[in-house]
Write a structure and sequence with these properties.
With 124 residues, the protein is mainly α. The protein has helices spanning 19-23, 29-38, 49-74, 82-91, 93-99. The longest helix is centred in the middle third of the chain and has 26 residues, at 49-74.
Length: 124
C-alpha cells in the first residue's frame, strides 16, 4: 500500500483532545451529548447540539455565580450560600423571569415591607 487507506502508520502519536477543549468550554460537551442521546429527546442528535447546550449552561452558571458573588461581598461574606443565589436571581430581571418559579432551598425571600404597614409620618 502506498500510504493510503485506513492504516494509522505515519500519523504520529497524537494526544486525545476533548470536545470541551476544542470548543473552549469548561462544561463537559461529551457528557451532555451522552445525556442528550440517552434521554431519548430525539432520534438523532447533531454534532453541534451538545456544544451549544454546554455553552449556554456555562454562561448561565457564570452569570448566576457572578451576581451571587456580588451579593456575598455586599453581605461581607467570602462564601456563596443559597441565600446569596436567591438574592442574585430575584434582583436580576431576566434571571427572575427564567427562574422565578424555582424554589431554592434555604434561600429565603427578598426583604420587603409593604408601605401600608410602615408607621405614618406626622405632618405638622
Amino acid at each position: 500500500m502506498s500510504g493510503k487507506g485506513k492504516s494509522k502508520a505515519g500519523r504520529g502519536n497524537k494526544k486525545a483532545v476533548s470536545a470541551s477543549t476544542k470548543a473552549g468550554l469548561q462544561f463537559p460537551v461529551g457528557r451532555i451529548g451522552r445525556y442528550l442521546k440517552q434521554g431519548k429527546y430525539s432520534t438523532r442528535t447533531a454534532a453541534g447540539a451538545p456544544v451549544y447546550l454546554a455553552a449556554v449552561l456555562e454562561y448561565l452558571c457564570a452569570e448566576i455565580l457572578e451576581l451571587a458573588g456580588n451579593a456575598a461581598r455586599d453581605n461581607k461574606k467570602s462564601r456563596i450560600v443559597p441565600r446569596h443565589i436567591t438574592l442574585a436571581v430575584k434582583n436580576d430581571e431576566e434571571l427572575n423571569k427564567l427562574l422565578g418559579n424555582a424554589i431554592i432551598p434555604s434561600g429565603g425571600v427578598l426583604p420587603n415591607i409593604h408601605s401600608v404597614l410602615l408607621p405614618h409620618k406626622m405632618s405638622s
